[in-house]
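Figure 2 data, in text form.
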Amino acid sequence: MPNARRADGYRQAMRAHGLEEWIDVVSTSYTQEGGYRGAHELLARPRRPTAVFAGADIVAMGVLEAVAEAGLSVPGDISVGGYDNTTFAAFGPISLTSVDQAGHEIGRNAARLLVERITDRRRPSVQVRLSPTLVPRRTTARPPE
């Protein structure tokens, strides 16, 4: 499941940077409503987070809504990041920091490999690995001092 792999990657990165005590994962649905509910849960904790990484951009939209409703500012009080780098993440009013998983490149490779396999059924299978990249925008900043 992609969501489990993303959560594992988050945990590994936090440990690698000596931030294990700050690891906090809320499991919710990959929807705007899920992000909203998850953010409410995080904001109700005694130690409010300085950042929230949502496993998908649509989830981050719910997080942004809950943070605004709580009277907090993004990124002044809390940074918010998403995953997928969807078209709406780049819209000026949203300007969501997001991880780009190279979806277009994945699609191009899949189509090319399919055509090659149809052309030559004896062709060996191929595995293509792409690295995601962070696309920083206006929803993230250094934590307040």
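Caption note: The first helix runs from residue 2 to 16.
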